Structure to design on (185 residues):
């Protein structure tokens, strides 16, 4: 999942890597829950017929991505589809396929598979609070703000107000992704 993420959103991936490295450098006893994964959390939905009703993942990083992988023995033309509600999209989602979405921004879910088939899923994500904690020097928001002078609190508020712009700056255009992959002449 992480290699797909790094390919399609290299700047956002680097933001995740910086956050993960900061936390792991301060707490070397922490280990990645999945070898090679940039995500801090992994959820195994073990069904046997996993259905995820439409929702948004509000605890994840606001502009972050979530990885969803379908597993099991089912016919994807008869169920298990992913629905991206705001876009009105129903996407066929076969076993072993992975989808990355900004799960805070896009309401999503999947439909039942029916019959006696099995559908499981694995999702990976990183809570937004971990990014804030790392950026605040391994301190919670209140502890961090209590240690600031009034002008620093004001600067932090301005930075937070522009957070969405920072997040958008980490998304890649198709031209940027292509330029990263094509040797320059």
């Amino acid at each position: 999942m992480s290699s797909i993420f790094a390919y399609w959103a290299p700047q956002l991936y680097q933001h995740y890597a910086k956050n993960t490295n900061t936390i792991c450098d301060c707490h070397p006893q922490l280990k990645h829950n999945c070898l090679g994964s940039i995500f801090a959390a992994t959820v195994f939905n073990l069904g046997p017929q996993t259905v995820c009703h439409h929702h948004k993942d509000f605890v994840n990083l606001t502009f972050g991505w979530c990885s969803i992988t379908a597993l099991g023995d089912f016919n994807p033309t008869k169920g298990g589809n992913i629905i991206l509600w705001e876009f009105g999209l129903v996407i066929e989602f076969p076993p072993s396929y992975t989808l990355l979405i900004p799960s805070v921004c896009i309401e999503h879910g999947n439909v039942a598979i029916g019959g006696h088939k099995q559908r499981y899923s694995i999702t990976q994500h990183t809570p937004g609070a971990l990014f804030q904690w790392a950026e605040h020097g391994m301190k919670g928001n209140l502890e961090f703000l209590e240690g600031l002078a009034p002008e620093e609190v004001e600067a932090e508020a301005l930075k937070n107000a522009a957070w969405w712009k920072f997040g958008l700056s980490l998304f890649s255009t198709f031209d940027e992704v292509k330029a990263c992959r094509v040797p320059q002449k």
